[in-house]
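Tutorial handout. Part one gives the primary structure; part two gives the three-dimensional structure as tokens.
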Amino acid sequence: MTYEEYNEFCRSQPATTYVVQWGNSHVWKVGGKVFAIGGWEKSDKPAFTFKASELNFEILRDEPGFRPAPYMAARGMKWIQQYDVPESGDEPLKYYLGESYRIVSKGLTKKKQKELGLNQD
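Part two.
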């Protein structure tokens, strides 16, 4: 996945905002809370960081091309970084980015969710 494709996918999620910060990283937020970071890696390869469920964190932490996210995981947060493209292509990454969005949006206050028109089912 390129950063352009990553930005396009994140932009497609409802009520998101985009900012470039933390060393020119592509940072996506919902309700002011970060759900995805594109960049934030010292190599020339694209890297994508996202919040993960307990189970996904345990599964991905030892998978090739994934690792606990630098800085965040060291502080006990369940964030994963994909730093190398797995053979399975972009679909798993899209799934994990979507899950990160869902986790973060569900963590917003009920008032904020209603204000943004999120999770109203």
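Part three, for discussion. The longest helix spans residues 91-106. Residues 3-110 form a domain with the Aspartate Aminotransferase, domain 1 fold (CATH 3.90.1150.30).
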